[in-house]
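Deliverable D5.2: sample structural annotation.
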Amino acid sequence: MDTPFSPSETHGAARLAHWGVIRATGADAASFLHGQLTQDIENLPAGQWRLAGYCSPKGRLLASFVVLRGSADDLLLLCSADLLAPTLKRLSMYVLRAKCKLTDASAELAVVGLAGSNALASLEAASAAPGTVLTQPQGQLAVLPAVAGCARAVYIGAAEALPALPPLDAAAWDALEVRSGIPRIVAATVEKFVPQMINLELVGGVNFQKGCYPGQEVVARSQYRGTTKRRAALFELDAAAQPGQEVFDAQDPGQPAGMVINASAGQPATALVEVKLAALDEARLHLGAADGPALRPLALPYPLPSAAE
C-alpha cells in the first residue's frame, strides 16, 4: 500500500554524504567564480546563498551548485559528491593568475540536511528567510525554500556541533529535495541539459545580466529566442527511478521523451524529469520503456512557461 507524502511529519537531521563541498578563498575568489558560473557571484552579499550552474562551451551543465558566501573572500560551493573531483579539476585549470584557491573541503565540512520547523528553531533559524546564510559556532546554515510547508536548511560544518536531533531518513530528505523542483546535476546527467531544460533559471540559478561565462551565448539564445521545448516536471511512480534514466511517451515510443534528473525512493517514489513539453498534456509517460512504470504528474511549486513562451 502506498504511503502518502506527509511533509508536516518530516522532522530531524540527515547526513548528506552524496553532497560535497568546494571551498574558494582569496581576493579574486568571487570574481573568478563570477566568470565561470551562471550566477552573479561578485554581487552575492555575505550571509546569502544562490543557485548556480557550471556549463560547457556548448551550454550544457557540467555541475550545479548552492553557493554560500560567508565572507568577502570565502565561498563554499555545494555540489553532488560524485562529480566534485572532475569539477574541481576543471575549474582549477582556469584559475591561472587569479588570487583564488580552490580545495575539496568535504572531509572537514559535513553537510547535514535539516527538516521541520523544530529542527530549524534549534539553530535559531525558524524565522530566517530562504536565501539566508546564518553563522553557527562551527559552521554555516543555509536556509532553503520550504516544501509543502516543511521548513528546510542545510548545515555545513562540524557535525558534532549540531544539537541532538531525531535522525531523518535519507529517503525523506530526498523526497523534499525532489519536490522542491530545484534540480541537482549528478555524474549520470553531466552535459545532458542546458539550464532551461531543467528549470534552473526559473528557480533563480541563472542571471541574464551578469555577462560572460562558458556557454553563455547558448544559454542566452535559448532564453530570448524561446527555443526551449523541454522542461523539468514532477512525477510520482510505483518503481525506483535513477538519474539519467530515460522516459518514454506511449504515443511516440520510438525515441526517449525525456530523462530523470533527480529521484527519491519510497512508495510511491518521486522523480524530477526533463521532458518534452508536448508530452505533458496527457498522462502517457513511462519509465525506461513505453510500457514501463507509469509516471503520474504532480504539481511543481512554481509555474512552467508554455512551449510558446
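Annotation notes: Residues 62 and 190 are 5 Å apart (CA to CA). The first strand starts at residue 12 and ends at 15.
The annotation will be released with the project's public dataset once the embargo ends.
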